[in-house]
Design brief:
302 residues, alpha/beta, 7-stranded mixed sheet, 10 helices, globular
Length: 302
C-alpha cells in the first residue's frame, strides 16, 4: 500500500445515488490519516474500504451541509467505541460550532476518547504543524461558511551522488553529512539540491474565488468538486459550486500534477463527460474522475 494515497469513500453531492455515497475522503500520509468531509454513511464506507477508526488522526470538515458532515456522529462514536489510543483533532468552520457539538453528541454513548478541536475562522491560516506536514485552510465562497484545506510537506534536500563522489564522500559519512549538515569543509548544500515538499489540496463546495487558486497553486494532487457540467455554469454559480471546466482551468493555471474530480450532481449519467470538459479547459496532467472506494496514489516526488 502506498504511504501517501487518497481513499475515496463517497463522491455524490447533495443526493446519494445507487452507485455514489455521500462525501468522504481519507488521505493516508506517512502513517497518519486525515478524514475529509464525512457525509452520511461514511462509517460503512470505511468498513468497505478497509479503513479503521485507528487510522484516523484528523477530521477536516469544509462546511456544515449534511452531505459533508452528517457522518460525523457515527465516525466519532466509532472512535470512542474502538478506544482509539492516540490524539484525534477536528477542524471545521468556527461559525458551525453548534453543528459540530450537536453531531458529536447526537445520541447517548460512552465517551472514552478526547477529540481535540481546532476550528477555522476568518480567512483561514495554519492549523497545525507536524514533522511531516503543515495543515492550512483558506476561505471559499459558498452560501454557508466553507473552507478548503492544504497539506504541505516541508522542503528537503536531495543528495546528488556525482557531487558526493567529487568530494570523496561515501559510506557512513553520507549519513553523518545529512544529520549534521556538514562534514569537514563540505556542507550539505554543496552536494545536494532542494527537494520541494509535496502539496495536497482539498477543495469542496465553492464558486471560483481567490481561496480556490491559493489552495491549488503548485499542488501534486488537487481533489476538487465539479458538481456541474459547463452547460449549467449559471446554476453552479447560483448554488456556490464549480463546473468540470472550471475545475480543469484551475488545475491548468495552478500547475497541478494530478487532478481528482468529485462531488457530482445526480442529474448527470455520463461521468466521462466531466473528464472531457476538464480536458477541454486545457488541463493536460494526470486526471481521475473519482468513484466510490477508489484508491489514488499521491504522485511520487519529482
Amino acid at each position: 500500500m502506498s504511504g501517501r494515497e487518497l481513499v475515496v469513500l463517497g463522491t455524490a453531492s447533495q443526493v446519494p445515488t445507487r452507485h455514489r455515497n455521500h462525501n468522504g475522503y481519507l488521505l493516508r500520509w506517512d502513517g497518519e490519516g486525515l478524514l475529509f468531509d464525512p457525509g452520511e454513511g461514511t462509517q460503512r464506507q470505511m468498513l468497505r474500504a478497509g479503513v479503521a477508526a485507528h487510522d484516523l488522526n484528523r477530521i477536516c470538515v469544509t462546511h456544515f451541509h449534511g452531505d459533508h458532515s452528517l457522518g460525523l456522529a457515527g465516525v466519532i462514536q466509532r472512535i470512542n467505541l474502538d478506544r482509539v489510543p492516540h490524539e484525534i483533532t477536528a477542524h471545521y468552520p468556527c461559525s458551525g460550532q453548534k453543528f459540530f457539538d450537536r453531531l458529536r453528541y447526537a445520541t447517548a454513548y460512552r465517551e472514552t476518547v478526547q477529540i481535540g478541536q481546532v476550528p477555522v475562522a476568518g480567512d483561514g491560516g495554519v492549523l497545525a504543524t507536524t514533522p511531516g506536514y503543515r495543515l492550512e485552510a483558506r476561505k471559499l465562497s459558498h452560501p454557508v461558511e466553507s473552507y478548503g484545506y492544504l497539506l504541505v510537506e516541508p522542503d528537503g534536500r536531495r543528495i546528488l551522488p556525482e557531487l558526493l563522489a567529487a568530494h570523496g564522500i561515501k559510506g557512513p559519512d553520507v549519513g553523518r553529512l545529512q544529520r549534521e549538515g556538514s562534514l569537514g569543509s563540505v556542507t550539505l548544500d554543496e552536494v545536494s539540491e532542494l527537494r520541494r515538499g509535496q502539496r495536497f489540496a482539498f477543495v469542496m463546495d465553492t464558486r471560483l474565488c481567490d481561496g480556490v487558486h491559493a489552495l491549488a497553486a503548485g499542488c501534486d494532487m488537487l481533489v476538487i468538486e465539479s458538481t456541474f457540467l459547463d452547460q449549467d455554469q449559471q446554476l453552479a454559480s447560483d448554488h456556490g459550486h464549480l463546473t468540470a471546466g472550471q475545475a480543469g482551468a484551475v488545475a491548468r493555471d495552478a500547475g497541478v500534477r494530478h487532478l481528482v474530480l468529485t462531488h457530482f450532481s445526480q442529474r448527470y449519467s455520463d461521468p466521462d463527460e466531466f473528464e472531457r470538459q476538464a480536458r477541454a479547459a486545457g488541463y493536460e496532467g494526470e486526471l481521475t474522475v473519482a468513484h466510490d472506494l477508489l484508491r489514488v496514489p499521491v504522485p511520487k516526488r519529482t
